Amino acid sequence: MSENQETGLAPQRAERRQRLIGIGLMCLAPIMFASLDAAGKTLARTGTDPLLTTFMRYAVNVALVTAFLNPVTRPGVARTRRLPLQILRSLLLFGSTGCNFLALQHLQLAETVTIQFTAPLVVALLAGPILGEWSSRMRLAAIAVGFLGVLVIVRPGADSFQPAMLYCFGNVGFYAAYVIVTRKLAAYDSSATTVFYTGLAGLTLMSPLLPWIWSAPTSVLAWTMLFAVGLFGTAGHWLIVLAHARAPANVLAPFLYTQLLWSVALGFLVFGDRPSVWTLAGAAIIVASGLVLLAEDAARWSRRRG
Predict the structure, then answer these.
(1) Residue 28 and residue 149: Cα distance in Å, rounded?
(2) Helix %, strand %, coil % of the chain (to 5)
(3) Which residues of the chain have pLDDT under 50?
(4) Which of 165, 225, 205 is nearest to 41 (CA)?
(5) Going along the chain, which residue ranges are E strands?
């Protein structure tokens, strides 16, 4: 290979490296979210109001973020080129969080997560017309197979449907839109700026309600979990922002499926929930679809290099 050819491949290698880093960050984010759900489920079992859990999710988030990212320590961090989008993104996350904590009052971790996994399919479909990140037929087919894996677990029908699942469907809509807006903002604002605005809308909306929803926890466990939901949520969404700054949304979306594995593990270890055969079968289908997507992306990059 000539020196000119080698030089021409350097940008592709750098972009490929950024994609792989983005995928790695996206694989870490579901661990944080599964831990957040486990903390929220624990709080529900202690009788904590889900609205209070939602408030603490944002209060801790804003406190942690402003401790490290603020106009004093990071001049210009609050300067955004798309303020309406930042506000919209924060509101969408607030809607997703509220629906999730309401669902966790009645459903197992695995149930809530599997319904949420329709979100990557929605993201992949919307990424084309909204972001111009069109998926290949192979990628769409693999994502569709992953969605079938979700259906295997949920097994929709009159006997298995619970009204609380409607909260999960609301979560799907809010979260899919949140991911799309996150990716769109990556072209205008830095990761630090986007993280700075993440929890502000939720805290602003919840603060006036605090006198009506506040009930001081009576146990160390409840206090710990209230802080944990904010900590895990902040870490997870920071990872998502960093990932979307390095790779397209349609590439990253399927790796959210790994949250199912962590949720099943935590559900068993923390709450004694044993996954059914249907859950294991659906999880296998979902993971297989994610591996197909990764292989398809690697093959495409090999062809470009060749």
Answers:
(1) 22
(2) 80, 0, 20
(3) 158
(4) 225
(5) none
